Task: structure prediction
Amino acid sequence: MKLDGKVPAGPLAEKWTKYRSTIPLVAPNNKRRIDIIVVGSGLAGASAAATLGELGYNVKCFTFHDSPRRAHSIAAQGGINAAKNYRNDGDSVYRLFYDTIKGGDYRSREGNVHRLAEVSTSIIDQAVAQGVPFAREYGGLLDNRSFGGVQVSRTFYARGQTGQQLLIGAYQSLSRQISLGSVEMFNRHEMIDLVKVDGKARGIIARNLLTGELERHAAHTVVLATGGYGNVFYLSTNAMMCNVTAAWRSVRRGAYMANPCFTQIHPTCIPQSGEYQSKLTLMSESLRNDGRVWVPKNQEDAKAIREGRKTALDIPEDQRDYFLERRYPAFGNLVPRDVASRAAKVACDEGLGVAPTGLAVFLDFSAAIERYGKSKAHATGLHDVSADKIRELGEAVVEEKYGNLFEMYEKITGENPYKLPMKIYPAVHYTMGGLWVDYNLMTNVPGLFAAGECNFSDHGANRLGASALMQGLADGYFVLPYTIGTFLADDIRTPRIDPNGPEFMKAEQETRDRIQQLMSVGGKQSVESFHRRLGKIMWDYCGMSRNADGLKTARKMIRELRAEFYQDVFVPGSANDFNPELEKALRVADFLEMGELMILDALDRQESCGGHFREEYQTPEGEALRDDANFAYVSAWEYKGWEEEPELHKEELVFENVELKTRSYK
Amino acid sequence: MKLTLKVWRQKDGQAKGKLETYVLDDVNSHMSFLEMLDVLNEQLIAKREEPIAFEHDCREGICGTCSLVINGQPHGPMQKTTTCQLHMRHFNDGDTIVIEPYRAVAFPVLKDLVVDRAALDRIIQAGGFVSVSTGQAQDANAIPVEKDQASHAFDAAACIGCGACIAACPNSSAMLFTSAKVSHLALLPQGKVEAKRRVLNMVKQMDLEGFGNCSNITACEAECPKGISVENIARMNREYLSASFTSEEL
Result:
């Protein structure tokens, strides 16, 4: 089947505006008769559910959390991009579009990305109107900062808690619709299957996590906003419960999974400290505005630091290698995430790592503290002040900018980052891949839409910082509420879908059987132990760098692990009860399948681009070597069955407006 | 280090609960408190016992899912720290740690250490929002907001909805939670328009949910992992009084 992205024709800058005016509408009296299921209540899900509710549809919104306010969007720290050009520094919709296409290493659709850049400005307006307390300047207007891969300041922020504030904004709008009765909220409900009727997505099977009961929910259309699959790596910056189940179950029902190998490894995370560790913690990219990344120049010093005989402060300036500034003078510490992560890995592979595990580099704020201290002293009329006083003033400025991040770092590591540089190492953070969707955000399954991180649409092979919040909210507030009309306009005469129809009963029974299968294995190993082993395979062979041999080995290992899982897993408790271990088991079972697909995709893509680095394809300087002649496509995988090879469909990427260049940040 | 844990076990909302004792021999001081519980759960699973149910998600101190009353204190002994950010280095070898669920009438226990905090959502649904639909907004810079004012609003908006304030209060009052949202929105020009209606409706819902009254003990502020100030309660009281006298809806 040829995949059609359905990007409208016409000049890039006019596509969305023109198209939006031609999308079929659903009249208000008909909206009242149409049911929509939204799965997920993060930025994309909450904004979509709230907006669809405002428009007059009957919305049912599902979250596995105890409240819609807990979704992992809340943990985003640094900010949200928008082409407002409030700084007058040359930003524009086109520039945001171009930066995003380039940052994504030319593996995303021009039309989608331009639309994202266009609606970015409305998101900021909407959020401010909701009462999101963005950072402001003394004049009362909004402040901005810079993020990686970009040479303008277009990132809006709310201290280090931007995701929290934007999610609470969306949650408040959702709460308003719940109170008005247009959205019915289902907390502690997890979607575990998709139900299709006559080939169209018409409902879901959800498990009530409190009672264990399986419920059939029907609607005219289903919107997935269920986040990314980074937890396939076990250790990631994702929250503990983030999972791929809703998306993967949809793949098993015919939806295509696109670019699954595109995973973002974030350069600035707190390094792993022990085997018992359950998750990794991100230190916001915004820190790279002021932090300088370095390792000692020679291995002796690095070894001394690892063994605790020296600290960072013992290494003189001329013995430090500020490797990002050295390798990428034009962008310095603000190179994109994939580039920064790989450079840190290279430094550690050369034996220059600074944590006992050998896996960490420094992120140093002393230069910024001194610079801010001097500026503050000057501004407050202090002259001839001591170096200590300057540090003190500087630390206060840094605290104002990043206080909560520094606090979090100290809580986790027990070290004071104002005095000693932070130690950081890359970790899995975001997945650019996801369900294949067309320009309307509809998957290849009619009536099944995907928004936010769970679709593949806008970030290509690498996402720029502060663009996840932008995309989640763009999809939910400003794209999906329009484009859903393309499907629903033909459905206004379709009566309420019956949740007792044969397709629903069959899907429920299949789910029940699947749960029973897991409960009845009665093996010896915990779900967690399987997840940890899967994560290690994925990280070792399909992480920051990949090669064909390793990937083939990993595929074999995963298949064996999966077989072992179904023979030896132990799920305690009962299926008809509140049972977090069963929840985990269902998720890990799906990760075990998704992991294999990621490996297949990584094998297929014989080029290096963005977050996907194949060792066989690099320049002599160790930079990613893209192959536009053969791989300028979106890979979309069709599930064929338990032991069958999935089928690859390709959507060729057409670039009419940007010239494909080697991505350089030098 | 070696620790003795006394953990509240309760099969479900109807069952009677009790403290069970568990001994952990080899706790690493770099572990977080929840990782310590993970280790205990792995041991229980290995013994084919049912693991302890507790809620958690982001483990970064921001989602508000984790809770627990640790040695009598919600989120444990460290100030401005959620349970997930609490590390074992703050405990000593040989310690006995008592772990209980939040206790409040409006927070019924669901299982072990898990309670139902849906009442907090209903308080927000009663008015904790600005009634602006998508697409209605004007340009973001159209209304300047004084920096300090925005900063105060932010301080109130930093609430993570974890419910520690209620667990800390002898009256199980939800005044800190409710006032944080009332303050956040009342301090901003965007939220002022419906401020009266908001405070009246939210306080009404708070009372309906069965939360107690505030008697100025301020344990809520002391235990709040985000340092939400009781000044917000004063502000809410003022907003409430003035709304009560001037609102035409009454």
Notes: Chain B touches chain A through 78 residues (CB under 8 Å). The longest strand of chain B covers residues 3-9. Chain B has two domains: 3-110, 118-246.
